[in-house]
Design a protein that fits this description.
five-stranded antiparallel beta sheet; 2 domains; mainly beta; 7 helices
Amino acid sequence: MRNSNRRITTYFILCSLLLIGVIYAILQSNLQINGTAKIQANNWDIHFNNIVVNENSVSIGTGDSSATIDPENNCKIDFEVTLSLPGDFYEFTVDVVNAGTIDGMIGELNKTLKVNNEVASEIPNYLTYLVTYADGMEIQTNHKIEAGVTETYKVRLEFKTDIEELPSAATITTSLEPQYIQADSSSIPKPELFVEGTWSQIVEAYNSEKLIYLQTAMEAGTTREVNLDLDNDGIPETTGHLRIANLSTPSECETAGFSQTACGFVIEFADIITKHNYNSAESNVGGWPASSMYNYVNTDIYNSLPSDLKNKIIETNVVSGHGSTSGETNFTSIDRVYLFSTKEIWGKEGTSNPVTYDSAEEETRQLDYYSYKNVTTVNNSNRTYAIKEDLSESESYWGLRTAVSIDDASFFRVKNNGSWSYRFSKYLEGISPAFRIAK
């Protein structure tokens, strides 16, 4: 087998500009105009800072050097690594800091790659070379970095595993020189990850624990559109809106028998996408898993979602409460799409609380979004965050998976003012489902 060591030499440069301007005017004739213009002191300073190497990266060997910012030029990073085996990689993140007073934007990216000092027109098929923002978004020209803002790049070089033949030893030199210039009218802000990123990029940000990009969107209640094919005819006819409902996985989520519905990366609909009844008869026997609503949500609703999103949905261990039927205990099901429970919306605060009549309330927790918004049954102002609008109507009621423990016929729902009620399962109820994503 041929020697497969690859020596990778890479450098990055951020080009700096110093902008100085003077404006003055003296116009004199029979008429006289005197004016004074003052120039405020400004400075241009975009540079690298804070390199963090992925702890699973290849070790730095003899003759190699870890990624380091040039001590005489904080716009330059150099490193040399050796990738010996398929699957070896070197990865790090670095902050791009606009410490000046002038907004900048990327004018040129200026990428080059050489193999044994010969310029390569494309990346060799045995190498993956990616430079993105830390959240996985592509770095593009005209992206704006405002004064006082810090963005993070992620750099990854990998000896690919899916290669048919090991290549000969070679030295690969790569360079990326994002040239920052003063922002003008053509500059565009970095895309909002949750709104404009692909689902793969969103999941990558979550998996790599770059949660700041997602946390901000969750706290703001940011939504992104999704096309739905509710009649499953292959043609999406409805547009819903998704938002982040949860990002954390506290210790109780690891407890056996605890519902995973408010653990990890949970996405919910911010609107009511359609209506359906729980059962044709007035019954909550068998709870959520035995209901017609359960089958509809896990088949029709799931199948209405676009494939790139479905590919990221993971199965969720769901615990749900029971009604008053003798002998029933809490139910456990494995769902792809599900409805929330009472505690997941309102928490446990208050004496007049539907959680009192939820037999499974100890097996779940309040979702991060509703906790951050301080949604409770006793907070008339904040419970408005539980209000959702029907896609074709105004604010409406939407159903939960919780059977009412004191009767054998009803399920809980959220009213159009954010408070709670329940009614017989035979009536149509608004559906605003949720699911978890990862991978």
